[in-house]
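Input for the complex:
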Amino acid sequence: MSAVAAPSVYAGGASVIAVGVLLAEFGMFRQALLRDQVRLYAAQSALISVLAILVAAVRHLPELYVLAALSAGLKVVCVPVVLRRLLRGIGAGRTGEVDPEPGWTEIAGSGSLSLANTVLLAIAVAAFGFFSVAALGIRSPVLPPTALAISVSVALVAFVLMIMRRDVASQAIGFLSLENGISLTALVVAAGLPLFLEVAFLFDLLVAVVVFELLIRVHHGRAESLSTADLTRLRG
Amino acid sequence: MSAALPIPVVQFCQVATIALAAPGVSGVIARVEARLQGRTGPRVLQPYYDLAKLLRKEALAPEGASWVFLAAPVAAATCYLTVPLLIPVLTSFGLPLGYMGDILGGGLILALASFLVAVAALETGSPYAQLGASRAKTFGAITEPVVLFVVFTVALVTGTDLPYALAATVRSSASQIVRPAHLLAAAALFMVILSETGRIPVETHTGTNEFGMIEEARPFEHSGPYFALLKWGSAMKQLILYTILINVFVAPWGLAASTQAGAVGLAIVALLAKAAALGVVVAVIDNSFAKLRLFKITEFAAAAFLLAVLGVFTLYLGGG
Amino acid sequence: MLVVILLLLGAPFATALVSLRAPAAVAQAVTAITGVGSFGLVLALIPAATHRDLNYLSYLRIDAVSAVFLLATSFLYAAVAVYSVGYLARSRASDADFSRYARRFYAGLNLFAWTMLAAPMMSNLALLWIAVEVTTVVSALLVAIEDTDGAAEAAWKYILIASAGLGLALLATIFAYYAGAQVLGEHYNLSFTALLQAGPRLPHTPVRLAFVLAVLGFGTKMGLFPVHTWLPDAHSEAPTPVSALLSGSLLAVSFYAILRYYQVATAALGPRFPRDVLLVFGIASLLLAALYLLDQRDVKRLLAYSSVEHMGILAIGVSFGAPIALAGVLLHVLAHAAAKGNAFMGAGVLVRKFGSKRIAGIGGGLDLLPWSGPLFGIAVLALCAMPPFGIFRSEFEIVEGGFGASANAPAAVLIVLVTVAFLGLSVAANRMLLMPRDRSPGALSRGEPSAWMVVPVVAGVAVLLVLGIHPPADLTGLLARAVHQLGAVT
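Predicted:
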């Protein structure tokens, strides 16, 4: 068996950051508290901004600096603040609560599989993502091919996360991490996309987050909890 | 100025360094941990004194135990003395006996030692020892795939699975250090080491806690010199694993490039310093995290598996 | 023409803003005027769109294909705007509650219609995605506007699944950019015409990937199997005018997005691959919908599955590829909008009259509702492709195109499954219209709840008759040009 040649330092570093994004995605399976999930999401978004800055510096794409700053401002600051405000307000109605922020420290509902099995399932899904991207043979102009495979895997694992979670807030955070995976793919494959389109996508995401927040409030208002266990009324 | 040492001496030095320094590394970890907790803590050389005390004590064997019970600690210690011949402890080039086995061979011998101790524990009929043995083997089985994938990573990166080759590759350029496969494999191996040496978050190294003890329970029935051999053996296993992590993955610098006495001496000092540094890291982790409940150890193993598998995947896609 | 287009874009948005502040009656009136006005404006656009593509302000582009979808949306907007005048009356207990509900309802309705009118006008794949995404968020809020558990559940499912699907569609957009950038340079701005012109030079793999992701992603919003699961819930729990718009227009707008990717994929890859993909999804959707239609308990859910069926028919029609099949597909978009709108509006009247959405709870509709009963029956018959209504003509053209393109097996399957769907729909309609109610009627008098709820349905039936018997020459001209643009290859 012959050795696999090492990538350049830039490629290696960029791949490591991308791997960090994927590991953050897997980390969300582990987080039982909603607060930790939001923080992990913020960390994941920060990693993507760092990668964008790295690409901008090495590949001389100044527009990406603006994009990195905006996306960091939006996804690392605004969205977690919105989510925190939402979750804080949620638990306020319950009686006998000692915790002043019960929604923020609420434990996320987990699905039918245990955590270890879920991680194994997610690894299998990520493997599918890796190998299908390898088979496609799409070469990115600015980042190594590993980064494209990782970004597609992040999106796929985010789907698994959304499926496995049993409460609306975790599902929403799973959706947001899906958007993270897609913006990572955009960074890998579409780094030259005109800036205003990228900004439009970002603000669209913000609108979506606001609507998600409204609907979570609606859900909580009716069900008095964030669990989706009772969402079985509509069938057939 | 320094004389060139003959090769057999260097080989002997490898084994001797591991054998003699192993309890010291445990002592360093115990002291640093105590310091971090605000206590003064035991002497760094305390494990040596413990071993000496134990060697003077009487050895007892339970009724019904066969010769395996007495032979196992000796055999295990022998295995632990063999493995340093195979891994880059002091030198950056392969020594003749080092070609006896590759990483897989080294892993096999370590597993053999662990197996013998487990069999001896099973023989005793004591509930604690059997508990420890069965848990150790179960969790060992779960972490095996991780070790395998780490080995695959090494094989894919260097084209062989000789540990010397990977050390040389890592030293060769900065790009080798930054590649994700290398970092992921190192992280996965570190998690396996935490599991194999019985540290937080898998097990508390000090104190016996029935709900959580895995490795610590196995030598329950041994006493006197046999117990000393087992303790020393497990300290050696710890230092061997640390050496593999340090000298192959994380920091393969400071190894002797020739057999000059000065270079070899420097290599010994470097190894001990690096092992102590890793020990400090382990002590900090000990104090920062809580022990996982037993059924959550599968999550820990799954996380290590994830890291190892990702390491192999990134290699497959060209570059990694 | 620019003035017309700007009015078309500006009026619904302005109406939405007005509805937020103004009293309910004012909002109702302004919405109705805007709705009918928009329909008129689109009719004015048609002659121009038949002869050339309209390009303005570098981001607006209306060609014949867009005009067809604009027509469908604006007709339903007009119908629904008039219908809501009757629908919202007396449906709320207290005045304050009602006025808040009405304000939100009208603001949402106008905003929703605005986004659906804007989407076919976008010249740029990225803006198209953004428009479809905004339709999702607005319609999700509208689905949740009712104060019931079912509505909350349906809205949550809808937004989660649809947003995840649109995430896939965003991936498709990104790969389309990648394909375009290979040929057109790094600063390619996802303009559709440029991509289409570069067609044969585009690299195959990214285009293939983009097309499949687009079908899956936009197909989530269109209601293709297996990503249709939100559809029955959302369409049945939303208020009736919103359901009509969802089924008749929103699904069509999502189909429009898929059509654009289909154009690009055909230009780059040839017709084989895109058609195969669409055929698979179309047949699967049609099969699932036909089977589910046989056993429905809720009238609006029944109509929702019928929408899935028709979307499957649209996909199959495109996969046939013959010009007449494509003409049938576009006509089907128009006819389905009218028929589905009628059906939902009639169902709304039935639900209002009998106080229950369950099919078992509704009976004797023909006796008790002198107008809406027969009109609902006509709508159901129209949905089942009964002549002389428009859907008969369009499905006939699709099947003829299928046999002409030697796709005999899929065409035969289509006919069989449509018949199965007819069975399901007619059993339910029979139950609701002809058979008497199970329990004692309890003082239900014969009469319509509101005339406002009848007029749009009559208009819809008129449209269906026109489309079925003799489509106007302008329309056939428009359809011919649209078919030509879709690159029909026999």
